[in-house]
Design goal:
This protein is an alpha/beta fold. It has helices at 11-17, 26-45, 63-66, 84-93, 136-146, 163-169, 191-200, 212-218, 246-251, 274-277, 290-305, 323-337, 345-348, 352-387, 393-401; strands at 50-55, 75-81, 100-104, 121-127, 147-158, 203-208, 220-227. The chain has two domains: 6-247, Vaccinia Virus protein VP39 (Rossmann fold); 253-365, ACP-like (Non-ribosomal Peptide Synthetase Peptidyl Carrier Protein, Chain A). It has a seven-stranded mixed sheet with strand order 3-2-1-4-5-7-6, with helices on both faces. The chain starts with 10 loop residues before the first helix and ends with a helix.
Length: 402
């Protein structure tokens, strides 16, 4: 993850997305054009807002191509991803568009478990994401339940298992996480596999391009899957339980707990620059202050998670943290405290209190080592002066005795 998003910087990927064509080929451009035209047509016919859900939106690569061209007024478009870091970034990137909504969404879970009514959306847009799930069928059925009776799922999927994709994205564990071997024997599905699985899950499909020769040239396919009344898949979906999902917990705003959040604490604005924070953890006599250190850790968490209030014992991941935000947190901690906090440490020290204790011990140990080193230097300097006759040993001993 640190290779794909160094230092938790999502803008790193944007640099590559802006090189050459934004989607990758002519079919991608035509697919986007067709999608936008369809949305604008549907919006004119509806007497209410047209509701769009983009899942697995990631760095906003597709969103940035679609959103500026949506001209209809009666529109509600939801940018979602399972990674909260992407959602927080999107709020800043697309803040000029009032019809945008944002949230964490897991495509393996029912919408009702994630704060949405069944059949709420008219259109679901998914760019290179459905294939990444362990069971494509389970995900398609979950997405189907989010669509209204005449809703459509717009899929853009790579259909070739090329070496370049495996070399770049194969470093992530999810690349190898598919489990539905009865459907596919590699991560990417071909045209026939997509058509079969969509039909089994209650969709009528229109796929472009369908000719094998064109697919080899295009590398991507565009699928419009319209919801129908026939589901041929008989097995129940294991992941679609009615219990509260992990994602639902991530969506919920952190509740204020008077036992964890002290009203007397004066926490500075999250705009505080990190390079100044290190100056705030010592008393006037240069002694490390644990409470001041806790306040600094609190501010770092605020900046990372973009939350105003946090519980000191609240788990980082329950507050919406994910792997990318964890990298971001690690970088902020190391920069502000000048320590070496590893990404794996967040699993062991996953709340503000435990991190404060951990950092306090690290800084105290470092301070003690510096004191010992300074004492050694003073002794070394004193011995040197004695050797050179610069200090009277008898007078010095008398002073020490007094």
């Amino acid at each position: 993850m640190q290779v794909i998003f160094p230092k938790g910087d999502l803008n790193f990927q944007h640099k590559f997305h802006k090189v050459g064509d934004h989607v990758g080929n002519l079919n991608g451009i035509l697919a986007i054009d067709g999608f936008i035209e369809n949305v604008n047509e549907i919006a004119i016919k509806l007497k209410r807002k047209i509701r769009i859900l983009e899942v697995g939106a990631g760095t906003g690569r597709l969103t940035s191509q679609v959103v500026p061209r949506l001209k209809c007024d009666n529109l509600e478009s939801h940018f979602t991803d399972i990674g909260n870091a992407f959602v927080l970034q999107a709020k800043k990137t697309f803040e000029e568009y009032p019809f945008m909504r944002y949230g964490v969404y897991d495509i393996t879970e029912l919408p009702i478990n994630q704060g949405y009514d069944e059949g709420y959306f008219d259109i679901i847009l998914a760019f290179n994401v459905v294939h990444t799930i362990p069971s494509v069928e389970d995900s398609l059925l979950a997405l189907r339940s989010a669509l209204n009776s005449s809703g459509s799922l717009y899929l853009m999927e790579s259909c070739i298992n090329d070496a370049w994709s495996t070399m770049s994205w194969g470093v992530l564990e999810g690349w190898w996480g598919f489990e539905d071997y009865h459907i596919r024997n590699s991560l990417m599905l071909n045209v026939n596999q997509w058509e079969n699985v969509l039909n089994r899950c209650g969709f009528t499909t229109h796929i472009y391009p369908k000719a094998e020769e064109l697919i080899k040239l295009s590398e991507k396919m565009f699928i419009i899957a319209t919801k129908n009344d026939t589901i041929k898949k008989a097995n129940k979906i294991k992941s679609l339980s009615k219990s509260t999902s992990k994602v639902e917990k991530m969506i919920e705003a952190p509740k204020k707990d008077n036992n964890q959040i002290s009203k007397n604490r004066v926490i500075e604005s999250t705009a505080t620059k990190l390079n100044k924070l290190n100056l705030e953890i010592y008393d006037s006599n240069n002694v490390l202050n644990k409470e001041k250190l806790r306040n600094v850790v609190y501010q770092i968490w605020q900046q990372t998670l973009e939350l105003d209030e946090l519980g000191f014992d609240s788990n980082f991941y329950d507050l919406g943290g994910d792997s990318i935000l964890a990298i971001n947190l690690m970088e902020k901690v190391n920069k502000s405290l000048a320590i070496n906090f590893e990404i794996s440490d967040i699993f062991s020290y996953n709340n503000i209190n435990s991190q404060t204790e951990h950092f306090y011990n690290i800084l105290n140990e470092r301070n003690l080592k510096e004191i010992d080193k300074n004492e050694e230097l003073l002794i070394e300097e004193a011995l040197k002066k004695l050797k050179n006759g610069e200090v009277d040993l008898e007078n010095t001993l008398k002073k020490l005795g007094n």
